[in-house]
Amino acid sequence: DCGQSFHGPVKLALGWVCWKTYLGRPVTDMHRSQAMGVLGESLRGSRPEEALQVLEAHLALSRRYWSHDENLVLIAQTNVAVCLSSPERLDETLILRREIYAKMVALFGVSHEGTIIDGLNLASSMVTLNLWDEGTSFLRDQLLPPARQSLGSNHHATLNLEQNLAVALYNNPESTCDDLLDAETIMEGVVKRRRRVFGPAHPDTLGAERALSAVREFRRRVDSA
Question: Which pLDDT value is given to residue 3?
Answer without folding.
Answer: 46
